[in-house]
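This part of the workshop introduces the protein records we will be handling. The structure tokens are whole numbers drawn from a learned vocabulary of backbone shapes. The record below serves as our worked example for the rest of this section.

===
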Amino acid sequence: MDELQHILVVDDDNRLRELLRGYLSQNGFAVTSAGDAGSARHQLESMEFDLIVLDVMMPGETGLEFARSLRETSNDVPILMLTAMGESSDRIGGLEAGADDYLPKPFEPRELLLRIQTILRRTAMPAPEHDTAPEYIKLGSHIFDRERAILLNGGTVVRLTTAEASLLSVLSEIPGEIMSRETLTDRCMIDGGDRAIDVQVTRLRRKIEPDPKTPRYLQTVRGRGYVLRPD
């Protein structure tokens, strides 16, 4: 029997926390919950999780601060943020803090489930077998497998968020072609407009560029957008 994927639900709202625990359990997940960032950190010290569902507005340490602290300690567990704030600036704040996706409250439970499944599929993709010959893009020591939307570095899978993988897939369709932020927003289905695209580009550069401050592969074309220039 396959081991259940384990989700940590972090929310100070007792009612919502228990509703999420019940719903996700009914849909085949093992679920642990925490009412604040301190309790969540304690759970992370004793157990491994496949994903965190994290509320932003919590007393004390906020969800944004907690997510940022996890990324600063190189903890790359996927994070789906929940918030009652729906402005684009709030969504961008979540992405900048290291979230993989962002779901405003109120939300349909089915949408939450679909977003969780999408993130988990992305992070669980295996490296391709050696005898396959997929279409790939070479970026220095990295290789992007376009067929599976997987980034490899020396044969090791580099974890991409759903937005990062979508962005790299679209930019690699025609290497050397400049794509506007508007086009990338529409094609990658990233909420938040130009600023959200800029955030995702910055995050992607940290994973593919030898020096993210002086990008060699994912370049900005002033006034026009971005272009991918592989080897």
